[in-house]
Structure formats: structure tokens, C-alpha cells
Amino acid sequence: MHADGQTGPVETYTPHRQTKEYRAGSESSRGSAVPLRSRKTSAAKPDPREVARLVAAAQRNDRDAFGHLYRLYYRPIYNLARFYLPQQAEDIVAETFVRAWSGIVRYRDTGRPFVSWLYGIARHIVADERRARRRVEPRSELPDSPTEMEHDDRIMLAMGMERLPAGQRRVLELRYLLGLSHPEIAVLLQKSVGAVKAQRWRALQSLSTILTTG
């Protein structure tokens, strides 16, 4: 537990492997059997004006400003990486911010949350890593039967998420892993808040069906 009373990974701008533990709870959603809940902490969301100032400074090669962005957005990127690839989560976070530092000069503010840009980088890294693992993982290391994996709810949930249509998966990742609000997701996806809520609900229902029927 941190000094502020929160649980989670310790956040420092050092892109090397560290030992971390993260304990995530589970919560059903309106009768759904899907153990997902939005990421909420007592800390206030980053001020968009302050984020814009930090981004502009980082684009002028201000490493301290970028380090501040790292500390602001470490947790949501870590949540996404750990959900799909827990053993590689810290490496994925490090690679995400290395690429972000390299590309931030090309970043343009389009009115969408800055974390959505980081999310796009991290999502590509996660997808590439998962594809690579499927290509090279020795067959002897795979479970003999599906039932051997059923004891790990996170693995089953991640596998179910991968089977969702891309649009539905994205809404769930933005809401439950990155912790964006419905209005923030609506801006990002250029949809109404009502449409985002409807898509989230359909995604949860689809995920519940996948998890219960296999």
C-alpha cells in the first residue's frame, strides 16, 4: 500500500524491470457474469490544460515534463499491459513510453484525451507480443486441456476479450482498463455518450456469452 492509501504498482520513471504486485477487484455488471469494473481512484484526473502544457514542453525536449506525463499515465497503461500479458507488463509499459518519447514531437492535440494516444501505442505492442507468443510458444508448455486454464479468471477473461469485435473490445478496454469516463470515450470515438453506453452494454453481454458458452 502506498503512502496515499492506494494499492497498485509503484510509479517511477525508470524503464527497467521492477517487482510489482497489483490487486484488482471484480464486480458484476447489472447481472452480467463479467468480472470487470471501471478503474477509479481517489486521485483526480489529470487537468487537460496541465497535460497540454506538459506535452508542449516534452515536444521541446523537456525530459522532466515527459517524466511527469509518465507518472500521470503509468497506471492505466500498466493496467492494460498486465491484463493481457502480466509477466511482460513492465516491459510493455517501458516500450510504450520509449516509443511515446520518440514520437511525441509528431503528436497533435485533436481534443481527445492524451492517454488515448498512449493507449494506441500500447495496444499495438500488446497485439504484436501476443502474436509473437502464439508463433513461438512450444506446444509442450501449453495446457493439456482447457480446464487447466479455467482456474485463472484473468486468463479466461483476456481470451474472451480477444474474441470480441474490435469496436466492442476497445470500449471495454478504455472504460475498464484505462478508466476513461463515458464522455471521454465519446469524444475519442466521435460518438454520443448514449451510443458509447449502448456499445459498452452490448460488449458486456457478448463477453458474458463467450465466457459462459466457451
In short:
By secondary structure, the protein is mostly helical.
Mean of the pLDDT scores?
Answer: 78
What overall form do the CA principal axes indicate?
Answer: globular
Within CATH, the superfamily of the largest domain carries the name RNA polymerase sigma factor, region 2, helix turn helix motif
Number of alpha- plus pi-helical segments? 8
Structural class call reads mainly alpha
- The span between the termini is 37 Å
Give the topology, please.
Blueprint: H1 48-59, H2 63-84, H3 89-103, H4 114-136, H5 153-162, H6 166-177, H7 182-189, H8 193-213
Helix pairs in contact: 1-2, 2-3, 2-4, 3-4, 6-8, 7-8
Can you characterise this structure?
- The chain is mainly α and 214 residues long.
- The protein folds into 2 domains: 45-138, RNA polymerase sigma factor, region 2, helix turn helix motif (Rna Polymerase Sigma Factor, Chain: A, Orthogonal Bundle), CATH 1.10.1740; 151-214, Winged helix-like DNA-binding domain superfamily/Winged helix DNA-binding domain (Arc Repressor Mutant, subunit A, Orthogonal Bundle), CATH 1.10.10.10.
- 57% of the residues lie in helices and 0% in strands.
- It has 8 helices and no strands.
- The chain has helices at residues 48-59, 63-84, 89-103, 114-136, 153-162, 166-177, 182-189, 193-213.
- The protein is globular and about 50 Å long.
Question: Which descriptors would you attach to this protein?
Answer:
disordered N terminus, 214 residues, mainly alpha, Rna Polymerase Sigma Factor, Chain: A, Arc Repressor Mutant, subunit A, single chain, 8 helices
